[in-house]
Design a protein that fits this description.
The complex is a heterodimer of chains A (253) and B (480).
Chain A lengths: L8 E4 L3 H5 L2 H13 L3 E3 L9 H6 L2 H15 L5 E3 L2 H14 L4 H10 L3 E3 H8 L12 E4 L3 H6 L4 H8 L5 E3 L14 H4 L1 H17 L4 E4 L2 H14 L4 E4 H6 L9
Parallel strand pairs in A: 1-2, 1-3, 3-4, 5-6, 5-7, 7-8
Chain B lengths: L2 H14 L2 H23 L4 H17 L1 H14 L3 E5 L2 H14 L4 E4 L3 H5 L2 H7 L3 E4 L2 H8 L16 H12 L8 H18 L2 E4 L3 E3 L4 E6 L3 H7 L3 E7 L3 E2 L5 H13 L6 E5 L13 E7 L3 H5 L15 H5 L1 H6 L10 H12 L1 H4 L11 H5 L6 H14 L5 H14 L2 H21 L10 H4 L11 H9 L13
Parallel strand pairs in B: 1-10, 2-3, 2-4, 4-7, 5-8, 7-10
Antiparallel strand pairs in B: 5-6, 6-9
The chains are: A alpha/beta (253), B alpha/beta (480).
Chain lengths: 253, 480
């Protein structure tokens, strides 16, 4: 895909739980996008992509939210979202929801390809890997399921991390294994979800990482919540927060 | 909530806290993973093999009627019998009838998940026919009076010491006999007598070859060969979906099944059986029966969306890669087919009412779909099952109400923000009032295991404070 002209206009989609639980992720994404020359627009009418009702089976409740999203963002040059999962909802699951709605399918064909997960947007769309960030810590990357398997994004965030000043990127065991979040699954099968999360956390601790990062704030709520309950050294942080960081900038790497 | 669902939840929750048990499974899976990875390397293009398998199975299933008739005709031409069983009960009754006609007192069985599906062994035992499993893993779980844990490796949940103790108790092996060779040897001695005296041999089928009318059986122990060649009667019990169009297709399916199942290039034994013993042949049964079981499969066939569930070759790869299976194990599911394939397929075969809850036993991570050698859209089928449960009102009213409210709130930005703010403040006040994760915590299903600390200010509030009315940096949303 050809790179955009300078200073592309970007509409950001901030998932509902980012809005209320981890707003710093959205703020960091805005900072990074502006730093690389985008002008950022936050359409305030946005609400939720509808993944909660969709994956619980309530497609009748998800469909109006899909229509709403498509209407709200149609006409955008690019839509960028700090969650692989919500991006996958739009690109991969809206078409299935829209099976019986030819109008929505047509609109989706237009807007769908313009919806990007954050790391994907930087690397694939803008062709940028170095955003001038500094973060002098040992970091592991968690491949979130939807990002990895629905969108096929795995190398892009790592490229961005490798370009961060002072950052040491290490791989943990089973980086692509589910953290156990799974939306309603996390409370519906709470013990099983937690067991998966604890396994993920043991892999993070085994890699002696200071931070675990990902492109999905929902995974990070799960992983970070368990890390913080265990009181260990490692902490969870979104990729956008690392890319926004200038900690220790200018020191020799 | 059904009794089955409550039992499932209880077993799953208990297994989730049993780390030593999970470690046994993981240790087995590590060995499998290594073999599977190496196995895939032997293919010039594993992905192309998957795509080809998918296409061949799609062809087989699209013309299932023709293929099955073609199969039947040729088996009958060789003097074999074919019985079409619509239900599990019909399959059991037919096999019991064959056993009665021949006065069978002892039947031997090789591995067959369909026999688990129809509870064949229990029915035979109840009718006075001793039924002995001859696959080593199946034999072990039979001695323990439990169902297989996994569709390929039925005793994968056991440590060698547990098997040693079991054999000491059941087969009188000397205490402390723990080498795999000695244990397998003890089972071989015990089973040899059964092989030589059984009146009937029962096997499954890995493939039904339509163009030659043959049953293909894949195994590693040679027990299936003895099962179908020594007793005077051989009964094959199989699902109708096992059909492949041509003998030549085995050139692809045999190595794909072996690779995905165990990581082997090809299993130790692969047999093709076309009928009973013919004049001049020195071995093989005098009577040969094939029971073709529907038991809900035609429901899946009629479902264009989920028809690819009938592509399944029962390799077990989706179980081996599933983090939920690793955690809760095979027995919690309470079905012949556990793991992702079971969670997707069993609700279709046996009804959403009794088994739909299994489709919720997944984080939808998609590892199963990624690994499936015949490209079944497994984890998306779980969502489709959930959709059908919701539309048939098989889910709790509270859930329906909750998601309906979610939709209502999310249909208006102002309303959604007020609801979000309310929830966030509630969480913050709650943190001050009760100990996080305690029984008094209304968010306990989350906070029991994970901390949660919502901020004072939402993203929106920050945006308005920082950005609103600052043209040039960023404007207000397009929707405003």
């Amino acid at each position: 895909m050809a790179a955009l002209t300078a200073a592309p206009r970007v509409a950001i989609f901030i998932p509902c739980f980012v809005d209320h639980l981890v707003p710093q992720v959205g703020q960091a994404m805005v900072q990074v996008l502006e730093r690389v020359g985008c002008s950022v627009d936050f359409p305030e009418e946005q609400t939720c992509c509808g993944q909660a009702p969709f994956s619980t089976g309530y497609w009748d409740d998800a469909l109006p939210l899909a229509r709403r999203f498509v209407k709200l963002f149609s006409g955008a040059e690019a839509v960028v979202c700090p969650s692989g999962s919500c991006t996958a909802m739009v690109r991969r699951f809206y078409p299935e929801l829209a099976r019986a709605d030819a109008g929505l399918r047509r609109e989706l064909a237009g807007i769908g390809p313009l919806v990007f997960e954050f790391s994907e947007f930087l690397v694939r769309r803008l062709g940028i890997t170095d955003v001038g960030a500094w973060f002098p810590h040992r970091v592991v990357f968690h491949d979130a399921c939807h990002l990895l398997r629905e969108l096929g994004v795995s190398e892009e965030p790592r490229q961005l991390l490798r370009a961060v000043g002072g950052l040491e990127l290490v791989e943990m065991a089973e980086p692509g294994e589910c953290c156990g979040f799974g939306g309603a699954f996390s409370v519906r099968m709470s013990e099983v979800s937690a067991a998966l999360g604890e396994r993920k956390v043991r892999n993070i601790e085994h890699a002696a990482a200071d931070y675990v990062t990902a492109c999905d704030p929902s995974c990070l709520l799960q992983i970070g919540g368990i890390l913080s309950r265990r009181g260990g050294r490692a902490r969870a942080i979104h990729l956008a927060e690392i890319l926004a960081s200038r900690e220790g900038a200018g020191q020799s790497a | 909530m059904s009794q089955a669902e409550r039992t499932f939840d209880r077993l799953a929750a208990r297994a989730a806290r049993d780390l030593p048990q999970q470690q046994i499974i993981r240790n087995n899976i590590v060995t499998y993973d290594r073999a599977f990875d190496a196995g895939r390397q032997r293919f010039a293009d594993w992905q192309a093999a998957r795509t080809r398998c998918h296409a061949i199975k799609a062809e087989a299933i699209a013309h299932l009627d023709e293929h099955l008739l073609q199969f039947e005709e040729q088996v009958q031409a060789r003097g074999g019998h074919v019985f079409w069983a619509e239900t599990a009960g019909e399959a059991r009754d037919y096999i019991l009838g064959v056993a009665r006609r021949h006065g069978v007192r002892l039947a031997i069985k090789s591995k067959s998940m369909v026999s688990e599906e129809v509870h064949l062994a229990a029915a035979l035992q109840a009718a006075g026919v001793e039924t002995v499993e001859t696959d080593l893993g199946e034999y072990i779980v039979q001695l323990r009076h439990e169902p297989p844990y996994h569709i390929v490796t039925p005793a994968m949940h056991l440590r060698r010491e547990q098997i040693a103790e079991l054999f000491h108790r059941e087969l009188n092996t000397p205490p402390g006999t723990e080498s795999a060779e000695e244990l397998a040897g003890a089972a071989r001695v015990a089973l040899r007598e059964k092989f030589l005296t059984a009146g009937m041999g029962i096997t499954g089928a890995n493939f039904l070859v339509a163009d030659t009318g043959m049953v293909a059986i894949t195994e590693n122990e040679g027990n299936a060969r003895l099962t179908f060649s020594l007793p005077p009667v051989h009964v094959v019990l199989t699902g109708i979906e096992k059909v492949i169009p041509r003998l030549a297709d085995l050139a692809l399916f045999w190595p794909v099944l072996s690779t995905a199942g165990t990581g082997q290039a090809i299993t130790c034994y692969n047999s093709l059986i076309g009928g009973p013993r013919r004049a001049g042949e020195t071995d093989g049964p005098e009577e040969f029966h094939v029971v073709l079981l529907d038991n809900g499969r035609t429901t899946a066939l009629a479902d264009a969306e989920r028809r690819d569930l009938l592509h399944c070759i029962r390799c077990g790869a989706c179980l081996n890669v599933c983090p939920v299976f690793h955690t809760i194990g095979g027995h919690a599911y309470g079905t012949a087919y556990p793991g992702p394939i079971g969670a997707a397929l069993v609700p279709l075969l046996q009804g959403l009412e009794g088994f739909g809850h299994l489709s919720f036993a997944s984080s939808l991570c998609g590892a199963c779909t990624e690994i499936c050698p015949v490209e079944i859209d497994l984890h998306h089928h779980l969502v489709r099952n959930r959709r059908d449960m919701a539309s048939k009102r098989l889910r709790p009213a509270s859930e329906r109400l909750g998601l309906g409210l979610w939709r209502w709130a999310a249909s208006d930005a102002g309303r959604f923000e007020r609801a979000g703010n309310l929830l966030r403040r509630l969480l913050r006040y709650k943190s001050a009032a009760v100990r996080e994760g305690s029984h008094l915590d209304p968010f306990r299903p989350w906070t029991r295991w994970r901390a949660l600390a919502p901020p004072a200010e939402s993203f929106r509030e920050w945006w308005r404070r920082e950005r609103a009315g600052q043209p040039g940096r960023a404007g207000k949303g397009a929707g405003n």
